[in-house]
Amino acid sequence: MRLVHDKRGAFNKLWRVSEDRHLGIAELFWSSSRRGVIRGMHVQMRPNAGRKVLWVSEGSIIDAVLDLRPESATFAQWTVTELSQGEGALTVPEQCAHGFLSISETATVHYAQEHPYRPDIEVGVLWDSFGLRWPVDHPILSERDRKFPSFHDFIQANGLMAGLHSSSTTHEAGLP
Fold first, then answer.
1. CATH number for position 37
2. Domain contains 94
3. Whole-prediction pTM
């Protein structure tokens, strides 16, 4: 999508139905984070797994997506995208862990999710355990995010080890 500026300000189309006719939005969320905050890596597994679309309305983030789909060619791989206000949206595939680092004074991130948030089944992967070198020395984390299992412990606890053996080690890659 293309950001358009004029004397009034800016305008941007974030998403169009024709691009993904199967995304049904169940809930919308937003978060505000100060510089150095990492939120993630969060995921809802099946049967409540679903895609989410996110965009930034204020500030900038470094967004990370970790593929936890054992049947995927990119299983155990991750991708990083820098997003700033007005730069469009990012779709996170179902069963992929998601997190971001706020790299501006404040960052406001919006999410449209396919399935309702269920804190009782949301799980996560420890932010620094899957190979991504975040550009922050001492991130600000929630207690919950700080206690997530390592990537290895997560895939072992969720019966995903077979997928790991057929995949290479974790590294950055594009996700479908």
1. 2.60.120.10
2. yes
3. 0.84
pLDDT less than 50: residues of the chain: 166-169
SS3 label, residue 86: coil
Q: Let me know if residue 6 belongs to a domain.
A: no
Question: CA quadruple 32, 37, 38, 40: dihedral positive or negative?
Answer: negative
pLDDT, tens digit (0-9, with 9 covering 90-100), for 66-93: 999 998 999 999 999 999 998 888 999 9
CA-CA distance, 4 to 109, in Å (whole number)?
20
Supply the range of the domain harboring residue 64.
19-120+139-166
* Residue 109, in any domain of the structure: yes
Residues designated as active site: 42, 111
Torsion of CA 147, 148, 151, 157, to 10 degrees: 110
Indicate whether 77 belongs to any domain. yes
Report d(CA 139, CA 64) in Å as an integer: 15
Q: Show Cβ contacts of residue 153 under 8 Å, excluding neighbours closer than 6 positions.
A: none
User: In total, how many domains does the chain have?
Assistant: 1
Report how far residue 85's alpha carbon sits from residue 47's, in angstroms, rounded to the nearest whole number. 33
Tell me how far apart the alpha carbons of residues 102 and 83 are, in angstroms, rounded to a whole number.
10
3-class secondary-structure state, position 84: strand
* Euclidean distance between CA atoms 39 and 78, whole angstroms: 16
